[in-house]
């Protein structure tokens, strides 16, 4: 499902109306009816509804809601919060309401109602809120009533994840045809509540050129009947340092659980006894060095790189001068897919990201927001509020695949495509969870899947495993290794297409 911005949605509306001949009043009617359907579905016991309508098309949608609820027997009141001089389709909806004997309220007592419909501003609005709208948003938020927002909670920007204040705090939001950026990214998504996407008759093919997509479904990998371990990939995980051996262990175990045929870990030689006692199916390769990897040892790995189908580096690695040289050697000398995580990313930031432009093979970077701040030079708040845009820009500029981890995870490709995963849980905010993701991703890359498909599956699988682990444990007690043990069940849910969605639909 595509993710749209305000101007893109406006263009689709225009193409539907002018290019396909669909009357705009019909789109408004269908939009309002979808909100009515959501109210009846989610709030079946509500009988008294207040509609707070603005002056534009969003207000017109709200007036459609008021009319149909009235015809269904609800007690309905509506207020024209920003004035009564409604034009165009919204003006026509007001005329119809008045012809039914429904006049706008001059005074409002929220105690007379069970639910509020927020129809002040739609996707065309750009913050900040000014004037009389400030008072109405405050009244809605202080009413202690359930709130249904039409299209977006009033006060938000459709194009940003910023949690503007003031803005309406909705229990559910009904948006039309496609979700918008603010619905899916945090912190703005907290204002939206449960998201409903309604089909109002705009053809989905009109959005085929949009390169933003929410990741709702993935295809599991296939395993042929005559396969052997050599065909399932041999991944090499380079990392570990004194005090940080667990990161490599978790990553290696995740690779095995994800389906890698063989998993080897390249680690500092003096730490090898720790790995030998911690790993069973996986193999360790002592590479010399005391407490840290040496660049000379990594050069030797490059001489035998044909033994491996994909390499991951950085988990538990430490941040040091020689670490920068290791990253440089791998970027310039490794022909296999290379995934860089954790301290590998910090060493890359110290080295300078321009070296990525010299890389010939597939490169995957998996930073969290703090690591991406160091890589990109962007402010953290700007990254969070524009997560998809900054990921796309970076991936295109440096010709790499970027898995940008935040409360949502964005996968961006060198061609400019972006996929937003909404799987996962706040319980995954624990050390080691990123190491598990890297192990999952390198396993899928190592078995020969196209990078884009491997990353989509891996990120989805990781988030789903986190949800499963939380249900079995508790959100406060989840450990990174619980995700590893949940991978088999996550695979089963994907194969059986039994994954719950965070988005609901109104046909």
Automatic annotation (TrEMBL):
Occurrences of domain YjeF N-terminal (ranges): 9-208
SUPFAM superfamilies documented for this protein: Ribokinase-like (SSF53613), YjeF N-terminal domain-like (SSF64153)
Keyword rRNA-binding belongs to the record: no
Highest taxon in the source lineage: Bacteria
A Pfam family matched in the record: Carb_kinase
Residues where AMP binds: 405-409, 434
Transmembrane segments: none
Domain YjeF C-terminal, residue spans: 212-494
EC number(s) per entry: 4.2.1.136, 5.1.99.6
InterPro entries found in the cross-reference section: Carbohydrate_kinase_pred_CS, CARKD, Nnr, Ribokinase-like, YjeF_N_dom, YjeF_N_dom_sf
Keyword set, alphabetical order: ATP-binding, Isomerase, Lyase, Metal-binding, Multifunctional enzyme, NAD, NADP, Nucleotide-binding, Potassium
Cofactor names: Mg(2+); K(+)
Reaction equation(s) it catalyzes: (6R)-NADHX = (6S)-NADHX; (6S)-NADHX + ADP = AMP + phosphate + NADH + H(+); (6R)-NADPHX = (6S)-NADPHX; (6S)-NADPHX + ADP = AMP + phosphate + NADPH + H(+)
UniProt GO molecular function: ADP-dependent NAD(P)H-hydrate dehydratase activity; ATP binding; metal ion binding; NAD(P)HX epimerase activity
Co-factor: note: Binds 1 potassium ion per subunit.
Binding residue positions for (6S)-NADPHX: 57-61, 122-128, 151, 247, 316, 368, 435
Sequence positions that bind K(+): 58, 118, 154
GO biological process: metabolite repair; nicotinamide nucleotide metabolic process
Function text: Bifunctional enzyme that catalyzes the epimerization of the S- and R-forms of NAD(P)HX and the dehydration of the S-form of NAD(P)HX at the expense of ADP, which is converted to AMP. This allows the repair of both epimers of NAD(P)HX, a damaged form of NAD(P)H that is a result of enzymatic or heat-dependent hydration.
Subunit annotation: Homotetramer.
Family to which the UniProt record says this protein belongs: In the N-terminal section; belongs to the NnrE/AIBP family. Belongs to the NnrE/AIBP family.
Protein name, UniProt field: Bifunctional NAD(P)H-hydrate repair enzyme
Organism: Hydrogenobacter sp
């Amino acid at each position: 499902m595509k993710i749209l911005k305000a101007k893109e949605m406006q263009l689709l509306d225009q193409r539907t109306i002018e290019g396909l001949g669909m009357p705009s009043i019909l789109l408004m009617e269908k939009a309002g009816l979808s909100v009515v359907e959501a109210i009846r579905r989610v709030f079946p016991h509500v009988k008294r509804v207040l509609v707070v309508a603005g002056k534009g098309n969003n207000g017109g949608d709200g007036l459609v809601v008021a009319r149909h609820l009235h015809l269904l027997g609800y007690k309905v009141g509506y207020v024209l919060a920003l004035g009564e001089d409604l034009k165009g389709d919204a003006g026509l909806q007001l005329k119809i309401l008045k012809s039914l004997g429904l006049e706008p309220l001059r005074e409002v007592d929220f105690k007379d109602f069970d639910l509020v419909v927020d129809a002040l501003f739609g996707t065309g609005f750009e913050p900040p809120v000014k004037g009389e709208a400030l008072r109405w948003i405050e009244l809605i938020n202080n009413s202690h009533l359930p709130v249904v927002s039409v299209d977006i909670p009033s006060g938000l920007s459709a194009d940003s994840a910023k949690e503007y204040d003031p803005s309406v705090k909705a229990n559910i939001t009904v948006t039309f045809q496609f979700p918008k950026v603010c619905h899916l990214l945090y912190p703005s998504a907290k204002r939206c509540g449960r998201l409903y996407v309604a089909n109002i008759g705009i053809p989905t093919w009109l959005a085929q050129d949009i390169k933003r997509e929410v990741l709702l479904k993935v295809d599991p990998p296939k395993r042929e009947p005559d396969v052997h371990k050599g065909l399932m990939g041999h991944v090499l995980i380079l990392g570990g340092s004194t005090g940080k051996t667990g990161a490599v262990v978790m990553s290696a175990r995740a690779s095995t659980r994800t389906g890698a045929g063989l998993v080897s870990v390249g680690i500092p030689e003096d730490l090898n006894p720790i790995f030998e006692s911690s790993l069973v199916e996986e193999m360790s390769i002592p590479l010399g060095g005391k407490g840290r990897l040496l660049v000379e040892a990594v050069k030797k790995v490059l001489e035998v790189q044909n033994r491996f189908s994909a390499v991951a580096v950085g988990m538990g690695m430490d941040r040091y001068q020689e670490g920068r040289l290791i990253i440089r050697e791998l970027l310039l000398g490794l022909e296999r897919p290379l995934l860089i995580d954790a301290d590998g990313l910090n060493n890359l930031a110290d080295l300078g990201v321009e070296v990525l432009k010299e890389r010939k093979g597939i490169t995957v970077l998996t930073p969290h927001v703090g690591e991406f701040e160091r890589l990109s030079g962007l402010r953290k708040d700007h990254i969070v509020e524009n997560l998809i845009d900054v990921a796309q820009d970076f991936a295109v500029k440096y010709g790499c695949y970027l898995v940008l981890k935040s409360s949502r995870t964005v996968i961006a490709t060198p061609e400019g495509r972006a996929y937003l995963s909404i799987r996962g849980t706040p319980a995954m905010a624990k050390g080691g969870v990123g190491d598990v993701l890297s192990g999952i991703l390198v396993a899928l890359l190592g078995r020969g899947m196209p990078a884009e498909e491997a990353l989509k599956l891996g990120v989805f699988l990781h988030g789903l495993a986190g949800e499963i682990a939380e249900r079995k444990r508790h959100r406060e007690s989840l450990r990174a290794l619980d995700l590893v043990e949940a991978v088999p069940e996550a695979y089963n849910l994907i194969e059986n297409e039994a994954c719950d969605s965070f988005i609901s639909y109104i046909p």
